[in-house]
Amino acid sequence: MKSGLKRSNAPIFWGLFGAGGMFSALFGPMLVFITGIAVPLGLMLPANTMSYAKMMAFAQNIIGKGFILAVIALFLWFAAHRIFHSLHEIGIHAGVGAKLLCYGSAFIATVISAVVLLSLGF
Amino acid sequence: MSENLKIIEIEVLRYHPESDREPHLEVYKVPFTDDMSVLQGAQYIKDNFDGSLTFRWSCRMAICGSCGMMINGIPKLSCETFLRDYHPNRIRIEALAHFPIEKDLVVDLSGFIEKLESIQPYIIPKEPRSLEQGEYLQSPQQFNDYIQFTSCINCTLCYAACPQFGLNPDFIGPAAIALLHRYNMDSRDGAAEERMELVASEEGVFNCSAVGYCSVVCPKHVDPANAVNINKTNAAKDYFLRFLSPKGGSK
Fold first, then answer.
1. For residue B92, what pLDDT is reported?
2. With contacts defined as CB-CB under 8 Å, which chain B residues touch A12?
3. E strands in chain B
4. With A38 labelled, which of A80, B50, B76, B137 sits at a CA distance of 20 to 30 A?
5. What pLDDT is attached to residue B2?
6. For residue range B114-143, what is the model confidence (pLDDT) as tens digits?
7. Angle, nearest 10°, between helix axes B110-118 and B174-184?
């Protein structure tokens, strides 16, 4: 066995990437349809589906908060990891800078959304 | 020349370390018959045009894994690739990508050999067994768990295919990880935890970005991409669960 092997911290990022990939595959297309097509065009759904009152109530519910945080944070961690590795593959050799930019923005966005969601109250 | 003898242009990447500053291409017009492989084309060049052309080969039947080269940019065994499939177009043969070239089509495999050694490619028994206890028994099911991963012939086509190995030559790479998985999956072996240190390391499985080209070019259907990705899951489990394990997982 080789000596001086350093354990990779990749499982943290790979885990978030995997969770985000699964979550976005399950919910992404449906959310795009509801928020981007059906509600703005008034198709299929009641007119007040995404009214302020309803959305506020959703964001004040503990499960609703969890869902919104998961959608924002996991999607971003998924995207950050994918972009980071794609940079690598197209020859932009991802150093510390690219890593900080990709994962850092996902991290900051996660913190901001958690703070905002909590500040909306219960 | 008989009537059915056709001519194909073979463009060969030549490199002589003592006289060339960098590799260059040379074109040869090679007469061929329908049963001639690309390897036989190279042999024709060596026998008739330039005896200094250097390449590895042995079995001529896709068993030894020596004759891998880039054929029109795709890693292939030249013995099972036929000139007739490229005629009338020109065919380009080059040394396997991502490896240092020693001479012409011969690459330096010493890094790969070190990786093979590093995975401990032998059965390390769970518990020592005396002669009186007899042989290790294995069910057909247990045999099936690993047999696919024994088919590797070390041709290194998967390394030439792997973009991540191309970027980071320290990556253990597809074939070595597939062989590591072969021993981990063997019911007689008990060293999966020992090998985990390498799997989970910075040289390990997380270099892979699941491109999957290694499995596409594998002439033996080993599916190294599958072995690598199973071990990503294993390494992630080891990473998060090591604190719960009584032995503390690997370091």
1. 97
2. 239
3. 6-14, 24-32, 68-71, 74-77, 91-94, 101-103, 106-107
4. A80
5. 54
6. 999 999 999 999 888 899 998 889 999 999
7. 20
Nearest partner of A1 among B87, B121, B164, B78, judged by Cα: B121
Nearest residue in chain A measured CA to CA from B229: A14
Which residues, including other chains, have CB under 8 Å from residue A109's CB and lie 6 or more apart? Answer: A72, A73, A76
Write out pLDDT tens, residues A56-112: 999 999 999 999 999 999 999 999 999 988 887 777 776 788 888 899 999 999 999
Question: For B107-245, where are the alpha helices, taking DSSP H only?
Answer: 110-118, 140-147, 157-161, 163-167, 174-184, 192-199, 213-217, 224-241
Tell me, yes or no, if A40 comes closer than 8 A to chain B by beta carbon.
no
Out of A2, A10, A12, name the one closest to residue B118 (CB).
A2
Q: Is the confidence metric ipTM above 0.95 for this complex?
A: no
Q: Between B4 and B81, whose confidence is greater? A: B81
Is B202 in contact with A14 (Cβ distance < 8 A)?
no
d(CA A3, CA A10): 20
The CATH number of the domain holding residue A70 is 1.20.1300.10
Does residue A100 belong to any structural domain of this protein? yes
Per CB-CB distance under 8 Å, the chain B contacts of A14 are 206, 232, 236
Determine whether the interchain pair B204/A8 forms a contact, defined as Cβ–Cβ distance below 8 Å: yes
Mean pLDDT over A106-120 rounds to 94
In this complex, which of A1, A8, A12 lies closest to B202 when CB atoms are compared?
Answer: A8
| The CATH number of domain B6-107, selected from 3.10.20.30, 3.30.1300.10, 2.60.120.10, 3.30.70.1110 | 3.10.20.30
| Answer CATH for B110-241 from 1.10.1060.10, 3.40.50.970, 3.30.390.50, 1.25.40.10 | 1.10.1060.10
Number of domains, chain A: 1
- Nearest CA of chain A to the CA of B219: how many Å? 25
Q: Is B240 on the interface with A (CB under 8 A)?
A: yes
- Which of A1, A9, A16, A78 would you mutate first to test chain B, the one with the most B CBs within 10 A? A1
